[in-house]
Amino acid sequence: MAAVTDGASRFTERFGLGSWSDALRLLAESGPAELIAQVRVVERADARCERWPRGKAHDDASALYARI
Questions:
Q1: Cβ–Cβ under 8 Å, residues 34 and 66
Q2: What whole-number distance in Å separates Cα of residue 20 and Cα of residue 49?
Q3: Average pLDDT for residues 3-16, to the nearest whole number?
């Protein structure tokens, strides 16, 4: 099970770094910190929001992953 804020969902929804299946795999294998770190790399690379238009360069990002 995973829960992510809109800032963390940028991994799939805004930046297209992978599918939701990819995001779940990353969460399971490397944890929430890695998913957020990958989002932050893209945010820093596009600080002017030109390549990936968005309301703000950085957004709060939280993710939770639990295996039930």
A1: no
A2: 23
A3: 97
